[in-house]
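User: structure tokens for Branched-chain amino acid ABC transporter permease, please.
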Amino acid sequence: MDGFAHQLIAGIATGGIYASVALALVMIYQATHHVNFAQGEMATLSTFIALTMIQAGLPYWAAFFATLVVSFVIGALVERILMRPVQNAPVLTHVGVFIGMLLIISNATGWIFGHTTKAFPTPFQSDGLLFGGLVSAHELGSTAVTLAVLILVYLFFAHTSLGLAMRAAAYNPRSARLVGIRVGWMLALGWGLAAAIGSVAGMMVAPAVFLDPNMMLGILLYAFAGALLGGIDNPSGAVIGGFMVGVLENLAGAYVVGTELKLTVALVIIIGVLVVRPSGLFGRVVFSRV
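Assistant: Done. Predicted tokens:
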């Protein structure tokens, strides 16, 4: 029973990481109606930047918040420089841009910071497991940080005028322009915010999986499964889906398929959702009259 409880709690902690990346994916999807395949590589680059700051002598939390700012700027610049010129281009053009970003950022990260695996520090230190051996200090702390970020993002979008303007620009750009919202800048802010959220996920997961240029490849797949499960057009649903995938992955890895085949859980979820309910558990079903 203790083993099951440990897997459940660890799954919730891991699910928080997936939920963060899933939320970033949904934010970009709402703005562009495309999935940003380079979201994981952007988060990895941000995590390397954070490690560089820490190694330069900056305290962990100072480096953490500085990385959020740098990541936000990088995300906004990507939208302004790369995505803005192709915003009205065909779907395959966007797919090509995202894949190109994935390859360029991954290779540039390895070229700048090296391809060797690096240890990333955690601010949550403890001599052993907590709560009777059910959870580590890092799992507990990373879950708290992730939940705090998700709550802040919810409050921002639900209770601030800027957040409401960003939602309006993503859902209906034409109507948003008619009421005076600068849609272009709202989209850039959305990209920046998605990059910052992704950087939190990168910094929280790096102490557990170690840091290398390909650190987020598997995590992005789990996050995509969570976004599809909850609803690719529903931010709250994507967050719930991310936590669900984290729990399912841990339990399936421990009791069903083994740790070596855990990645297949994400693939099964993706295929199952696309076949049975493409809109996800909480997504909108859109009907078109012809």
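User: Anything notable?

Assistant: The chain has a mean pLDDT of 85.
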